[in-house]
Amino acid sequence: MASSYPQIVLFGDSLFQGTADVSGGFSFQAALQAQVLRRFDVVNRGFSGYNTSNALSVLPKILVPPTPGGPALKYLFILFGANDACVQLPTNFQHVPLDRYKENLARIINHPLVTAHKPKIFLVTPPPLDQIRVTVLDRANGHPAAARQTKISAAYSEAVRQVAAQHPGVTLIDLHKAIMDAAVAKTPGFDPSKGGPALGDPEGGVRGYLEHLLPDGLHLSTEAYRIFYDLVRPHVGAEWAGTRDQDRVGYVLPDWRDAPWLDEDSHLRGTSL
Known about the structure:
By secondary structure, this protein is of the alpha/beta class. Helices cover 33% and strands 10% of the residues. Strands 2-1-3-4-5 form a five-stranded parallel β-sheet, with helices on both faces. InterPro entries: Iah1-like, SGNH_hydro, SGNH_hydro_sf. It holds the Pfam family Lipase_GDSL_2.
């Protein structure tokens, strides 16, 4: 029987689809795969434009029940909301109401195809929005106004925090906070403690360092994906971290030095490719 590798599945919208991009010199997906090489397969199931209702409809097409010899789902990262949070416009139909969004996230977490594998589940908050930049691009693309708004997007990120808190065993990855904290730290003179509008909110008129982290106002730059990876990295690999031979523990197929065929081919011992 062929050896199957357990899986880490990145299930989300374009923000996960984009983790495969290497054009900026760093790929979130590649970095994560390198971290778990020979132990897990990192499977990208990011779908540009999808909302949580779309996600539920395709979930049976991307996950299969556990089977002997089949790949086991060990980690599931869920990142939806940037499209659910779209405002209702005649030129856009991605919006999912906030209450239904929360229900959909709960349904994904508790879906029989997910629970059958008993994976470690991580809910990721959608990142902040630079509505100032989004407005310019959306109008150029034929929308009468911005398809997304800073305050609404923030409410959907808060909803993710609530859903994670309501599900014991689910871990929250607060990408919204991490990206905004990084942007604020690199925006001289901006003080969020004063309670004014957030960076990227037209009411305040300040994009600040969001310009570099969210180049189109919505999607992550290479720098932002590094921030995202730094959030995820500590949660993966505890199975072998700190073990005596942590560089080889958990391999699906044995290290060449531990391979059973060495007893049969003793003349190969001490050689490597």
